[in-house]
Structure formats: C-alpha cells, structure tokens
Amino acid sequence: MRMTGKRGVDTAIEAVGIPVTFELCQQIVAPGGAIANIGVHGKKVDLHLERCGPQHFHYHAARRYRNIPMLFKTVRSRKIDPKRLITHRFKLDQILDAYETFGSAAKTKHSR
Questions:
Q1: Are 86 and 98 in contact (CB under 8 A)?
Q2: pTM for the whole thing?
Q3: Is pLDDT of 65 > 60?
Q4: What three-state secondary structure class fits 12?
C-alpha cells in the first residue's frame, strides 16, 4: 500500500493457495481492481463481501487456469519481477516432489 500511495494495486494475483495470501490480496487491491486467484487452496478462505461495494473489485477464479495468460502478459510487460514469485525450483526428474510440495503449500511455505 505504501508503494501505491495507499491507493492499492490494479491487479492482485493469488498464486500461493493459502488463506493469508488470499486475505492480503483483498487488502491491497484498489477500488475497481481485480483479484486473479490461480492458487490451489487446501484450506477454506474467506471472500469478504462486506468490504465489497458495487465498484470495489473484480474477482476471477482459476477455471482451468485461464488467468495464466494474464500472469504471463504481466510478467512480459515487466510490471512485476518474476524472481520475487519463485519459491521453489525442481528438475524434471523431481516432478513428483514438486507436486507433493505444491499440494502441501501451507506446510512447505517457501524455501529459496
């Protein structure tokens, strides 16, 4: 919020899938902005409709990951630094470990 002069962001992308990041997206999105939810949630999260006036924000859930192209477009435009989003790295032969980590996101947090 400090970076936007308390205005909020135009688009908040929830890609982690834990309650705290979903809550954060709701707190930082500007009026009229969008929340793109591409995270896979293993726990219940709350959508605070009481905070949503008719013009507050748009919410987009990841139906078959259709928000992924928007994420790539945002990265290509250099509006965000993707290095700040990467929490894990796996080689192809570690794919099962990667899926296990992804499925246990709330437990594994991040390790750079």
A1: no
A2: 0.56
A3: no
A4: strand
Instruction: Give the DSSP letter string of 16-50.
Output: S-SHHHHHHHHHHEEEEEEEEE-S--SS-----GG
Percentage of the residues of the chain whose pLDDT score is greater than 70: 79
Residue 37, Cβ neighbours under 10 Å: how many? 21
CA distance 21 to 53: 21
Q: Strand 29-37's sheet: what is its strand order?
A: 9-14, 29-37, 57-61
Report the pLDDT averaged over residues 96-103.
82
pLDDT at 111: 45
First to last CA, the chain: 25
